Amino acid sequence: MTGSPPGSPASRGVGPTGRRSLMHATLICLGIAALAWLPRQQHSIWFVHLRTEAGVAAPGTAQLPPEVLRSFVTVTPTASHRHELVKAMRAWRRGLWTLVLTNATGVALAREQAEGLRHNEHWLHVADIQHFSVTNKSGDFRAALAPLLAREHFGDACFKWMIYGDDDVAFFWPGLLRMLASLRSNDPYFLSA
């Protein structure tokens, strides 16, 4: 993507309304993160999931123009015990094609695939490999393969930018578009925070 699409948040700059939306979205994410430490973690996830399912977008998740959305795909590795977290993060991914890599199989995977189709999600099984990494997290293999599998799944012609993030990471469009505005999508970049 060279420059910003006309009318996109990055081309307009972020004015008072954009800053306010970003602040609200940040506060929501901080609230969710704080609630995650409480025993009732599922309720914070349920709250965000309920709001997005009801058609009420969280602040800062304004619908982007289709030409901007077509420039992006997103990929996230997860595990079966974290599927509700992936669903709770749908607000920022609304309208994007998303590949979710999980260790779920059988009926559980089929259920997530069927539900995910309504949200442009493709759920794919990638098995755990025990003792794969120095962290001893069996899902690290999924995380390592995520960008490669997304490229294989979507194909090069389908997108200009791939957004890769863990299942508990949300990206904020004004900042993301502003960061990418001066970069050429056909140059190889790996941007990390």
UniProtKB/TrEMBL annotation:
Domain of life: Eukaryota
Membrane topology: Single-pass type II membrane protein
GO cellular component: membrane
The keyword Repeat belongs to this UniProt entry's keyword annotation: no
Places the protein is found: Membrane
Primary location class: membrane
Transmembrane domains' residue ranges: none
Record's keyword terms, sorted: Membrane, Signal-anchor, Transmembrane, Transmembrane helix
Similarity remark: Belongs to the glycosyltransferase 31 family. Beta3-Gal-T subfamily.
Protein name according to UniProt: Hexosyltransferase
Organism this protein belongs to: Chlorella sorokiniana (Freshwater green alga)
